[in-house]
Fold this protein.
Amino acid sequence: MNWISNYVRPKINSLFSRRDTPENLWTKCPECGTMLFHRELSDNLNVCTNCDHHMAITPRARFEALFDGGIFAEVKVPEPIADPLHFKDQKKYPDRMKSAQKSTGEKEAMLVAEGEIGRTPIIAAGQDFSFMGGSMGMYVGNAIIAAAERAVKLKRPLVLFSAAGGARMQEGILSLMQMPRTTVAVEMLREANLPYIVVLTHPTTGGVTASYAMLGDVQIAEPNALICFAGPRVIEQTIREKLPEGFQRAEYLLDHGMLDRVTHRTKMREELITILRMLMGLPPAVAGDLPKPDKAEAPAKAE
């Protein structure tokens, strides 16, 4: 009896015991409530396969899907002064920065990269909403200027993916100064006759909307993205009226002439390739390449 209870039973229990399941294997769609397997969701670029709701995606994951073969090189961004105002609310600003860096694995709220999409060389910049709400501080201003300068130097178009809650309050007036700085950066591209395309993602609000996010030669948005300066709740409380359904969403802005296109995330790469090559005066992109023929299969030379 001891042999059975001490050896056989524990052995059987270990074979059939319930194993712990990692918590990040499934994601619940905030729109329809469908449980989505992590691999299925990432393969579809964080778009719900049931209702097409566009969830947040990091700039790094976006660039891996955007650039040819997922290959890109990061563009160096000048470091701004850390905590210039010695700001403190419930936490010190440097502590908030460290927390955001730890949770996202990124240095700041914007990533700038260079590479090719459809064999078209570009510079791309993407904001990370998971990093302090993608807020625009001095680093983001430096990043956009660095992206514009790199684009002018290499004579490449600039594609910017915006996602922000506005200016970073911890940097006060210094964050607001990034609005004219980034506007000047966009003007550098205009003077160099280089395309500047903006892809507005959910949400793009505040000082970001009031500056570089609405200055593109072509304005594209993802479906149902919130794009505004002041949010709908603030406007309703101010004017004390009920706003129309879909107000400040991408489709509403498209109908009212503020956007050129509303494009699904999985079709964004092909659309950007088409627009960029058209604006740069290049021939249509090659949809696919045939393999190089073997020497044995090569046709004989005509005599």
